[in-house]
Write a structure and sequence with these properties.
Structural class: mainly beta
Strand order of the largest sheet: 1-4
Number of helices: 0
Largest sheet: 2 strands, antiparallel
Oligomer: single chain
């Protein structure tokens, strides 16, 4: 029931199809230097629906060390 939007995906870098169910840990795309950006990176937003007026929903990122963190704008994660 949620809608996730990923921006700055490398051309041809999608690894899943629209509407496909994805699973935790599954790679879904390769980020790229697309649009007006100085370096390859990814923007991620989660909303309640596809409606562009739907409010964003908070979420946590699981980091490589196993900890979880609410993402902070402008911070780099790996």
């Amino acid at each position: 029931g949620n809608f996730a939007e990923y921006v700055h995906i490398q051309q041809g870098g999608a690894l899943v199809e629209v509407g496909e169910t994805v699973h935790k840990g599954q790679p879904i795309c390769s980020s790229g230097n697309v649009g007006f950006s100085p370096t390859p990176h990814l923007h991620l937003q989660v909303a309640q629906s596809r409606d562009n007026k739907a409010p964003a929903k908070p979420f946590l990122l699981k980091l490589s060390d196993g900890s979880c963190e609410e993402p902070i704008a402008g911070k780099y994660y790996s």
